[in-house]
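pls design
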């Protein structure tokens, strides 16, 4: 497979190769998002040494693995004593690098870096010494440290207050694919689906490359979802448990936060999240929320004209929402499961929520479709006594665009009832929140557009279709 998207990330990595000094690059992001694939592709001809930490390995396991890998990659077949400490291990790595006569940039790739930092091992002390006393003094190294434990990478590496303080020269947080990248990825695999089909799959599994890789040619959306999520042995059937167990210690608490957020469409404040999750307030809770945020499972949304303490946490991971809505506790399984669920009221509620979440991730494409990408704006939500706006775009040209999002399998027909609801919602916003100098535009974001009738003509100033969200 060729690399899809990742233009900015590729440029940053290539710049590290071109640099006239040694570079320390930190790459992080949730599991399955393609971090290792990206690094291996960009640095295919430049890697000098690479190692991947052992999941659940202790200090002895990690050191033995390090020694074995170093010996196997040292072409001189020099005998090495197994290191008893990380200071000794990184000293051997320094000797290995110094043995090269090449003046070209050499990439040292340490994957799953957090797994190597076992309790009381002094791993970070050894690595800090390696970088500060050896690697940074050379001009021909790119040291890449990569990890799925995003919170660890941010706290222990990027925000390090010790020997690595301000030493990271490039940081890359790798996110799942957007809709455009997902479409290109599937086309590269020879899978020709309509954009409506791709949108449905994105609502189930998001833009996680590892999940998309499991899609094969010649299947409908219902067949794909049944095979991956509901059939025995399905690749995603146990993924929810596996991903949290592998990423977080005390993962049950992280799952409690995810489940609490999945129960509320509009999101939850910190105090509401504490109450519904049943977790105690304090530093541990703050750490859990930070870890989930940095790993891309949840996001923070600041309501219009509100303070930070009023910010809302929202579940942003499509697969987690799908799993909790349909897979957890579902007694149905096998062929036909998704086709049956597809007709339920639960599907209608879930698809609307998931589509809204996807739109919130593609605001730049939405703004481009509206022709306002060059106008400075801020995005927010708003809640009144009887109304909820999930996305409003507060623009510097004295316009606030209110976005209403509707997922439908054909052109959306605005009814009198819905038009009355919209009118009441916008009136409440005007009365309670709209600044005097601002005007209000309503934008409908739908899958296939809006059928023109007297209600849409009265209410809607702009519309955006799902096709627009696939823009580059």
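designed seq:
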């Amino acid at each position: 497979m060729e690399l899809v998207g990742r233009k900015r990330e590729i440029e940053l990595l290539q710049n590290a190769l071109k640099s006239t000094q040694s570079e320390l690059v930190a790459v992080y992001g949730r599991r399955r998002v393609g971090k290792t694939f990206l690094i291996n592709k960009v640095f295919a001809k430049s890697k000098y040494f690479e190692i991947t930490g052992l999941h659940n390995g202790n200090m002895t396991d990690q050191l033995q693995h390090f020694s074995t890998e170093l010996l196997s990659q040292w072409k001189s077949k020099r005998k090495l004593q197994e290191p008893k400490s990380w200071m000794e291990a990184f000293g051997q790595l320094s000797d290995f690098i110094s043995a090269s006569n090449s003046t070209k940039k050499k990439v040292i790739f340490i994957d799953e870096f957090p797994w190597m930092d076992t309790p009381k091992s002094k791993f970070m002390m050894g690595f800090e010494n390696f970088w500060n006393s050896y690697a940074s003094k050379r001009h021909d190294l790119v040291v890449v440290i990569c990890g799925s434990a995003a919170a660890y990478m941010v706290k222990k590496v990027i925000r390090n207050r010790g020997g690595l303080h301000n030493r990271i020269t490039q940081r890359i947080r790798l996110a799942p694919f957007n809709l455009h990248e997902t479409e290109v990825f599937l086309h590269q695999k020879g899978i020709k689906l309509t954009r409506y089909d791709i949108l449905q799959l994105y609502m189930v599994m998001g833009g996680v490359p590892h999940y998309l890789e499991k899609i094969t040619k010649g299947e409908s959306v219902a067949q794909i979802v049944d095979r991956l999520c509901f059939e025995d042995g399905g690749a995603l059937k146990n993924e929810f448990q596996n991903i949290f167990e592998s990423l977080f210690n005390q993962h049950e608490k992280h799952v409690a936060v995810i489940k609490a957020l999945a129960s509320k469409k509009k999101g939850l404040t910190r105090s509401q999240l504490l109450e519904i999750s049943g977790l105690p307030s304090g530093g541990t809770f703050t750490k859990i929320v930070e870890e989930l945020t940095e790993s891309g499972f949840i996001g923070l949304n600041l309501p219009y004209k509100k303070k930070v303490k009023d910010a809302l946490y929202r579940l942003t991971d499509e697969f987690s929402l799908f799993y909790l809505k349909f897979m957890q506790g579902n007694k149905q399984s096998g062929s036909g499961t998704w086709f049956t669920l597809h007709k339920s009221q639960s599907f209608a509620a879930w698809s609307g929520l998931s589509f809204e979440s996807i739109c919130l991730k593609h605001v730049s494409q939405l703004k481009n479709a509206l022709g306002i990408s060059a106008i400075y704006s801020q995005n927010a939500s708003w809640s009144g006594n009887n109304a909820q706006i999930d996305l409003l775009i507060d623009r510097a040209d004295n316009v606030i665009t209110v976005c209403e999002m509707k997922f439908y399998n054909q052109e959306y027909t605005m009814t009198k009832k819905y038009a009355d609801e919209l009118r009441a919602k916008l009136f409440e916003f005007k009365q309670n929140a709209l600044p005097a100098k601002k005007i209000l535009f309503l934008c409908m974001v739908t899958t296939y557009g809006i059928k023109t009738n007297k209600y849409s003509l009265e209410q809607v100033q702009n519309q955006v279709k799902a096709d627009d969200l696939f823009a580059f």
